[in-house]
Amino acid sequence: MQNVAFSSGHYIDFINGVKVFYEVHGYRKNKPTVLLIHGFLSSTFSFRRLIPILKEDFTVIAVDLPPFGQSEKSLSFKYSYQNLANLVTGLLDLWGISKAIVMGHSMGGQIALNIAKEKPNYVSSLVLLCSSGYLSRAHYGLVASSYLPYFHLWIKRWLGRKGIQGNLENVVYNLDLVNQEMVDGYMKPFRTDHIFMALAKMIRDREGDLSSEALKKIDIPTLLIWGEEDKVVPISVGKRLHGDILNSTFISLNKTGHLVPEENPKAIWRHMLQFI
Questions:
Q1: Is residue 58 a contact partner of residue 107, using CB atoms and an 8 Å limit?
Q2: Known InterPro entries for this protein (predicted)?
Q3: Is 112 a domain residue?
Q4: What is the torsion angle, in degrees rounded to the nearest 10, for the CA atoms of residue 217, residue 140, residue 70 and residue 131?
Q5: Distance in angstroms (rounded) separating the CA atoms of residues 242 and 249
Q6: What is d(CA 116, CA 178) in angstroms, rounded to the nearest whole number?
């Protein structure tokens, strides 16, 4: 473990050739580690209600996946799931952590599954929150278009068609949660065009989600937690993952949408403790 990163705090380090922002909370050598991986268009901000609960029982590491949050919006980094998974395990290596509970939300769940498939020795158990699943690689026409000049402006326009308020209202069941603090927190990384340029590259780099055949080979204990009102990744996807991941437990939360770490952090903590 590096000497300068021996306590809780916020850090920026070069990992796998890219500048990465991450947070460490409640660090103790004798506590198990939970590694938090956020979803698409999100950041460590999405775990702000969950981290204060988890850090009492666990060392918590949360990472901003490039190009999101405060991590680098690189145009040379390969934004494949496999490379992002390698970046995450590189962060564990940096801290000298040999094994962790890996928790992934939405797209972060697919990255967690890639870690479990390629480097299972790093994972004691998986906790998947409304994980993405069964998505194919982007259509070849979209991939080809991503090379066009100013394509990033089309991405910016497409993502902004509902506005940040509308996008947040789509991922929560309880609309009262959407306040100015939440809007500002999720909007902050998108105030310059650099992230949209990196997203154009991500369209080219992202491979498809793991197949049923690959999922059935994962033998790590896995807890699947789903919001019953999820409009982004329907509960049917969670049930299908439960069928394919043989060593899995499935929990659904009523009156909860896609952004389950914001809406129902205490339920995540409670079910996680029971599962572990």
A1: no
A2: AB_hydrolase_1, AB_hydrolase_fold, Epox_hydrolase-like
A3: yes
A4: -30
A5: 7
A6: 34
Band (pLDDT 50/70/90 cuts) for residue 133 is: very high
Domain that holds residue 254: 9-138+208-275
* Domain annotation covers residue 160: no
CATH number, residue 25: 3.40.50.1820
Tell me whether residue 265 is in a domain: yes
Average pLDDT in the 85-105 region?
Answer: 95
Kindly give the residue spans of alpha helices, DSSP state H, lying in 30-178.
51-54, 81-94, 107-118, 140-145, 151-159, 163-171
Note if 242 is an active site residue: no
In terms of residues, how long is the chain? 276
Element (H, E) at 126: strand 123-129
Count of structural domains within the chain: 1
Asked if 10 is an active-site residue, the reply is no
Among candidate residues 42, 46, 71, 106, the one labeled active-site is 106
**More confident position, 106 or 2:** 106
Is the predicted pLDDT of residue 1 greater than 70, yes or no?
no
Q: Is 104 contained in some domain? A: yes
Q: What is the pLDDT of residue 7?
A: 58
- Show the tokens assigned to 53: 């609960």
